[in-house]
Fold this sequence. Notes:
Strands 3-2-1-4-5 form a 5-stranded parallel sheet, with helices on both faces. Helix 1 crosses helix 2, helix 2 packs across helix 4 and helix 4 crosses helix 5. The chain is of the alpha/beta class and 207 residues long. It has 2 domains: 129 residues, 3-Layer(aba) Sandwich (Rossmann fold), CATH 3.40.50; 65 residues.
Amino acid sequence: xxxxxxxxxxxxxxxxxxxxxxxxxxxxxxxxxxxxxxxxxxxxxxxxxxxxxxxxxxxxxxxxxxxxxxxxxxxxxxxxxxxxxxxxxxxxxxxxxxxxxxxxxxxxxxxxxxxxxxxxxxxxxxxxxxxxxxxxxxxxxxxxxxxxxxxxxxxxxxxxxxxxxxxxxxxxxxxxxxxxxxxxxxxxxxxxxxxxxxxxxxxxxxx
Length: 207
């Protein structure tokens, strides 16, 4: 496909964790900091994550985890754990970064739609790579989480694109299905190589 044939009206929107930012880093780093087995931390970490992604404070989140672990945390510890968590989830994977650079070179508008707490949203907006994106939308901004159908309506308004002009990648099938129901051209993320093929089929890249 020649560059002149690339559909420039499309915006490519990405989930963050498990797509642009590799998953699995945060739990290991946090468990090491707390000196607890990762398996002990995983349950509390995820059990309270939805409330955090919907806008509860770092203190509320980490103190809930501490209670489950039977280990009180000082505010200094809350700050430390929150910093580790946001650093792990706000770092781009190298292959994803390369794909984003390729899309940017083609002039393709980019966006993010991610379930993420306020701390992570702030960290991403401060990150140098966030400048690649036209619009960043997080669950903590909306008070709603994927796959709630209202997320896609609210995000669509912020993205400023018709539903049919949004190509979306997420690693969770339920989020992809909800996006498709809203008219987005949504795909399950399985890696950069597959994404490149999908983007060529969608008329975004020339393969």
